[in-house]
Every structure is written in C-alpha cells, then in structure tokens.
Please model this.
Amino acid sequence: MFFDSFAEFIAMGKHGFYVWLCYGITALVIIANILAPIRQRKKLFEQQARLQRREKKNASEA
Amino acid sequence: MWEALKRLYHRMGSPKWFYEISARWLPWFAIPAALCLIVGTVWGLAFAPADYQQGNSFRIIYIHVPAAILAQGAYAMMAIAGGIFLIWRMKMAAWVAAAIAPIGASFCFLALITGAIWGKPTWGTWWVWDARLTSMLLLLFLYFGVMALQKAMETDDTSAKAGAILSLVGLVNIPIIKYSVEWWNTLHQPATLKLTEESTMAMEMLIPLLIMIVGFYLLFATLIFMRTRNEVLWHERKKSWVKKLIEAEK
Model:
C-alpha cells in the first residue's frame, strides 16, 4: 500500500477531487455500457413476442 | 492456417452461428475483463507510487490512457468492419460496425473528460485547443457522424454503406492523433507507452497500466458481443430461428 492511512488514500494529496471524479465517471460509463445492451435485448424480446402473439391471433381469426 | 481463417470468416458471416457461439464466448471475455479492471484499479489507485512531478493526480492515467487507446483502436476496427461490408457485402460486418460505434464514442468521451479533469491540476486549465485535444475531439464527432449515418437512410443497406464510407474517410484522423504530440507543439505530454523502444515509465507504475489496457479491451470485446447479438436478433427477427427463440423465452 502506497498510502499510510485510509484518510490519505481518500485525499490523494490534494488531488482527491480530480482522481475520484475521474474514477466515478468511468464507473458510470462502464455501467451504462453494460446496461444499455441488456435493456435493448429485453425490449426487443418483449416487442417481438407481442408482435408474434398478434400475428398468431390474426391468423386464427382469419 | 489460411484455410482455418477462411472457414472462420465464412462462419462469422452466418448470423445464427455467431449468435450461438457468442453466448459461449461471452463469459471468457467478461470474467477476465472484470478481474483485470478490479486488479488494475486497486493497484493503480492504492499501490502504485505517486509521480514525483504530478503527485497523485497521475493516477488518472490508469483510465485516461486505456480509454484513449481503446477509442482509437475501436475506430479502426469499426472502419475495417465497414470496409469488409463495402467490399464483400458481409451483413454481419455492418452489424459489428453498428455495435462498435456507440461503445467507441463512449470511450472517446471518457478519454476527453478524464483528460480535462487531469489537465486542471496539471496544466491549470480544463481545455486548450492544441493538436492532440482537438484531434481527439474530432474523433468523437466522427463517431457521432458515423452513428447518425448508420441510421440515416431509407434502407438498412444504404445506411450501413454511408456509415462505412464516413468511418473509412475518418480513418485519416487516427495517425494525426498519434503523431499530433510530435508534429506540433502541444501541452499534452508525449506517449508514455512505446512499442518500439522502452517505455518512459517505472515498472511498478507500468504494470497496472498494462493490466488496465487489457481489461479495457476485454470489456470492449464483451460489449461488442452483447450489442452485435442484439443487432443479429433485430435484423433476423422475421427468420424462423429468431421467432422460435422469442417464443421459447415466454
């Protein structure tokens, strides 16, 4: 460990704000990048399932 | 070797094959990505020594440099995929290019924003219009342009073509970014990592950086798989194998 105490680790020698802001933004960007395709996939499945149900219903009525 | 590559290329052209195989490949990229990013971050933040000039603000390097490298590498890959689509009419290549664009743009944004935040304590300013920063900003706009074109035209085919052409034209910006710190006088420091000569960085600082770069690339691969799988499902939604897949989910 480079730092002597946890408080020093957080302070980053006066640069804490800049360092933690960067790592925070990075975490957000990575999380967003992972969630976006998961959500997209879920939406696609729901949408297509609805379409398929409607098609089946129309086919049985016709 | 050549035959095996050719076989892989032809299989890659099959959306169904890709969809099935990528499900098996995903964890082999996602898990090592998570490990590298965790180890690299902890190492870079808590264990690497502080820089003798910049103090602890230098720890931003562990995200700034990997993000910047990835933003450029992703752009080149997107352009190559676009080229493959234009020359060999391989639909999968267009879908991969569409998958890469938003991921690459987000890492380009990350490189710019962490650079700005790092610039404040180091240079005393968030932003300067010097060659490196400006060419990197241009890269972000190129990503936006490609993303817009990929959805702009009447048909999927012409949209993909338009996006591919812009991405290939924009490729000229990549060497400009790389050499901007040598060709012009810039505030930005010259490259820390060099392929042909020894790096200008101490080992205990360098190793976590390399781990982070590998981690970013593995994460990138994971994200491409996830997004390309969605592209496959969307474009093949009228095919029976996708219909069955969706029905089975319910």
The CA atoms of residues 15 and 36 of chain A lie 32 Å apart.
